[in-house]
Amino acid sequence: MNAFQNREILIGVTGGIAAYKTADLTSKLVQAGASVTVAMTEAAKKFVGPTTFEALTNRPVYENLFEPVEHPQGEHIGLARRADLYLIAPATADFLAKAAHGHASDLVSTLVLTVTCPVFIAPAMNTGMWNKPSVQRNLRQLKEDGVNFIEPGSGWLSCGQVGAGRMAEPAEILEQLRRHFESSVDGELVV
User: Fold this and answer.
1) d(CA 129, CA 175)
2) What domains does the chain contain, in order, with CATH numbers?
3) Which segments of the chain does DSSP mark as H helices, in order?
4) What is the mean pLDDT of the chain?
5) How far is CA 21 from the centre of its chain?
6) Structure pTM?
7) Mind listing the pLDDT tens digit for each residue in 54-84?
8) Quick one: which of 128, 163, 123 has its CA closest to 140?
9) What is the dihedral of CA 176, 26, 138, 105, to 10 degrees?
10) CB–CB of 10/79 below 8 Å?
11) Considering only 43-57, 99-113, 149-163, which range has the smallest mean pLDDT?
12) Number of Cα atoms under 13 Å in the Cβ half of residue 40
């Protein structure tokens, strides 16, 4: 059986240039048989528009905590209930700080607190930011909290630097998610 067939994947997109990679990943997930729903921060919409993700998923994009599109009790409740996995890609330093400290100031960060499914985070940021003690502290806290990380790579960054902080490539993220779903035992996911 295809690891993505009949899986509900929720993707949170935060405001980084690597959001273009998330569009490619979304397309790959849909082609692999997953049902994909996207939630975006305001900052994410500065890099890739919601229409892109709506076209790729054939679903609405969720942007607002207080203006329900589909779930009258709140998108953070309805989307969380149906998700088999929540992936945040790209995850900015700002998002990591919010998530590590339990802040829920937008839909994407609130979903971290409401989902009961496994959470995967694919960070993306400038090398200087990635190496800051505060960012590394937030990463450690989230790992202690049970969050799964898809580590960034090193390479050319949009700021013109070469170094760590580049979001993992869509194929690599897809492979890690596939391995996660294939590690299920009798239909139950291993977290």
Assistant:
1) 26
2) 8-182 (3.40.50.1950)
3) 19-31, 50-57, 75-82, 93-100, 107-114, 127-130, 133-144, 170-182
4) 88
5) 12
6) 0.89
7) 999 999 999 877 666 665 565 667 788 899 9
8) 123
9) -150
10) yes
11) 149-163
12) 22
At 125, phi and psi to the nearest 5? -170, 170
- Amino acid 29 reads L
- Phi/psi of residue 85, each to 5°? -160, 140
Please identify which residue in the block is written with the tokens 């939630």. 39
Q: Which two tokens stand for residue 155?
A: 């390479």
| Pair 67, 39: CB distance under 8 Å | no
Spatial distance between the Cα atoms of 101 and 150, rounded to a whole number of angstroms: 20
Question: Terminus-to-terminus CA distance in the chain, angstroms?
Answer: 20
Q: What proportions of the chain, in percent to the nearest 5, are helix, strand and coil? A: 40, 20, 40
Q: Three-state DSSP class for 137?
A: helix
Identify any residues that bridge with 8 across adjacent strands, giving them in sequence order.
35
Give the C-alpha separation, 78 to 97, whole Å: 25
Catalytic residue chosen out of the listed positions 17, 43, 159, 189? 159
Does 159 qualify as catalytic in the annotation? yes
